[in-house]
Amino acid sequence: MAGKHLPSSFLPRRFRSPVLLFPLLFLLAFLLYFFLSYLSTTPPASSSTEPETSFLISLEHFLAHRSSSTLSRNPDDTAGPAADDDDDVRKFDDSVFASESERLRGDPYYPLGLPLRVYVYEMPRKFTYDLLLLFWNIYKETSNLTSNGSPVHRLIEQHSVDYWLWADLIAPQSERLLKNVVRVHRQEEADLFYIPFFTTISFFLLEKQQCKALYREALKWVTDQPAWKRSEGRDHILPVHHPWSFKSVRRYMKNAIWLLPDMDSTGNWYKPGQVSLEKDLILPYAPNVDLCDSKCLSDSQSKRTTLLFFRGRLKRNAGGKIRAKLVAELSGAEGVVIQEGSAGDAGKTAAQRGMRRSIFCLSPAGDTPSSARLFDAIVSGCIPVIVSDELELPFEGILDYRKIVLFVSSSDAVQPGWLLTYLRNVSSAQVRRLQNNLAKYSRHFIYSNPARPLGPEDLVWRMMAGKVVNIKLHTRRLQRLVKESRSICTCDCRRANITSPTSLQ
Length: 505
Prior knowledge:
Elements: H1 18-41, H2 55-70, H3 85-106, E1 116-120, H4 129-138, H5 152-158, H6 161-169, E2 181-184, E3 192-194, H7 199-205, H8 208-223, H9 226-231, E4 236-239, E5 257-260, E6 281-282, H10 294-300, E7 306-312, H11 322-330, E8 336-340, H12 345-356, E9 358-364, H13 372-380, E10 383-387, E11 406-407, H14 410-413, H15 418-424, H16 428-441, H17 456-465, H18 468-480
Parallel strand pairs: 1-2, 1-3, 3-4, 4-5, 5-6, 7-8, 7-9, 9-10, 10-11
Helix pairs in contact: 2-4, 7-8
GO cellular component, one term: Golgi membrane
Family: Belongs to the glycosyltransferase 47 family.
Transmembrane segments: 20-39
């Protein structure tokens, strides 16, 4: 009957049968209902979650979604391994041998291939979540300043590399964007071990003796682990990004891979034999200013009327004495803006405005060879002019800083008229090349959650991959040496005058 009410040309001949028509109409109605329901419940594509680059916003989300489900697994104690340490280490070494033998047979690129396998210690929450919560609960009231005039919470943000790496590593794999590193849950499968202790937060927010006591507890907890004993810590990653953090006990963990802001060859922060480019890794500070993206860079070109800009503390200690000489040389010169300032909210606004109006940004040494100002300039599209003879740079095995930075020796920079003459002779074509490269390089210095490909977290693991084979070499060599073995003595092997960490207890 239904077919009589439709024009004969509406349906093909094979579908004019009532037996086939009703199921077809029912199917079309169901598909239409499903499609409309999907549209009503699915957010528009523009609302998809983007990686968060704000430390405070990311931390708020992290604490809300991660800590409550994890606290029950992290008892607040410092229990060590079983009583028979030597037996534990021997058993662990056997399991590592079995795992590595299997990988050697099955993976044609082992041990050079990616992804890296990282085991993240589940340390007692006093070393992790409790410190993050402490910061979160008081950062709004943290108006106190350090001796150099910087707000405490701003310094913690600048040295927050320990948070960004840990938050990415422990996120569910389905939420992660990086493919070159995976978290493993069996220690024998790990290439590297990550120690999630927030050394900077504890240094700035705990009372001095309480902080030192916590450092000693963390030291004992980590060095009691069989994996640490097996390699003497050579395959362990320790974030000590602020040069004051973990200072009282870090000499007992000098074999570990330290995540640093620089090498500080002055000897004020790291003692000889504690740090080296072969062992450790330099990471960028988290920028204190907002990213000037491609649109911002295009819009700001006509506004960049200042030749050279600097805002910061004008007098520093140790290696930063060059600042006073530069200020004396440059102050009052045409096209130069020199401002005293710190890293507070008002300072951030002033620094960001100044950098986006300038062609070159001066980056002299501070108390250490490095300065957060370098990375602020990079993400602002302001060509850094580095005057820091002892500076080591992040990811230099991957990035060529000559494409984005001008390097000037201290002796040249302080000569009357030399620096400004040099900058004014930089051709407009070279300025454009440097600025274009800054736009491409800025992504390498923006931390985010989840971590993004080619971001600083990604480059950390690319650099770490180059260290793994050498770490295994030194670990295995250590295990097979006998007392008559000839060894090459360096400042790193003079153990006679170094006290055992157990003496700290």
